[in-house]
Structures are given as C-alpha cells and as structure tokens.
Design brief:
alpha+beta; single chain; four-stranded antiparallel sheet; Immunoglobulin-like; 259 residues; four-stranded mixed sheet
Length: 259
Amino acid sequence: MKLTTLQKRIAIGILGVIFLGLLYSIYYSLFVFHITKTTPSNQNYPSSLGNMTIYFNQKLNTDALRQKIQTNPKQIINPSFNSEVLIKVEDDHITVTFSQVPKTGNYKLSISNIEAVNGSIITTDLGFIVKNIEYKDLNAADKKQFDEEALSGEELPNDPIISVLPYETDDYKIAYSFPLENSTIPARVIITMKFYEPGDTALAATAQQKLEYLARVRKYTNQALDYLRSKNTDLNKYVLDYTEPELRAEFPKGYVASP
C-alpha cells in the first residue's frame, strides 16, 4: 500500500513528537531536580504507618537543610493534616516521621526549598492519599518499613540533636544514640575520626608520625565540637564520647551524672 504525501507527513509528525518526548524524558531524568519515588507510595499510604522516605534524583545539601530543620522542620515539609513532623536528611533522601497519621482521605505535603548540592531547588505539593491497607496486602518494601518501625517501638524522643546529627566530613563523623527507655542519662554524642593511628604490631609508628596523628585528632575533634556549637548544641546536656582515647582530657566532658 502506497502512502499519500499527507499520510507521510502525519507519520513523520508522530515520530517527531515521540522523539521529542523521549529527549525530554531523558533530560528531565538526568538534569531536572525532582522526586523519584516515596516509600511507602504517597498515593497509597497505609494508615498503620507513621513515616515515609522521599527520594530525589540528586544529592541533597544536607547542611543547609539540617539548619532549616533545626529552626522549624515544617518550613521543609508541612502536612495539610494536624501533625508534628520529625525530619532526617541523608544523602539523596529525606525521612519524615509523623506524630499523627490522619484518617483515610486525600491530603498533601507541602515541600519547600529542598536544595541539592548543585544549588537546584524544588518546591512542590506532594499528594498524600491515606488508605486502610491490611498488613497482608502491603508490598514487600512497605512490609519492611512497617516491621522496622514496629521493632523500634519508636516513640521518637523530643530532642533537637536529631535534627543536627548524624554528620560527617572526610575526616570525622558525629552520631548520637539514646539510652534505654526511662533512663535518667541523656543522649550520647559520639565523635569518631575517619583515619587510623599510624603503625601496627609489625612496624611501630615513629615519634614524628605519632605527633602528626595526635595533631590531626586534636584538629578534627575540635572541628566536630565547633560544628555542634554552631548548631546551638548545649554540650553539657549530652554524654560526649570520643572514640579515640588520645587527648580526651583536652576536650569537654559533657554531661556527668551526679554521684
């Protein structure tokens, strides 16, 4: 069957539209800062869960976002239903925990000024559809999230350290841990160097190497403490744990239990 000139033009036009659509899809996926997925799905959120992880296609500016969260987490993610939010930022995703999940229905999460490391910013409304879904009907990813939440027995402590940590650089990392329930001891802040002491059992470190190592421990431990202070963290409210034993006497002790 021979195509007419008009049919050829229509076919070429359709192929052109498909090709342009494919190019835009590739461009959007690679270069436009956007949300790639949520777990559980924001369109099918089980009313029995209390948190959701939002993934992005680019790495996030964690320092800038954590600073905003420390001031007011709802300036980052604000639900249209009545609930406080706890927000943790890590690499390319944000985990939001709700103090209260609403009844089944259609809601939204207002996402504002989420910044990527390259300076790109996303502000959007994310639809949030809550449904009554039995455990047996959850998909594998949602079951895993449900099980992890159940095992943690998570009633999240109301502590500002959560919005500041974990934090790490190329040289050190800072984490936190909470004591057992009903303990009178506050949270523990753990500072760990990401480099090793020189020497080993076969070849001991020279005196110069030892001095250089101690200088690095001193420098980066102080940098870690300065980071905490820059976030208005009251060091006296936390048990400070320095993983490297050297020079501990030089650094703040933090909270000390009464005898």
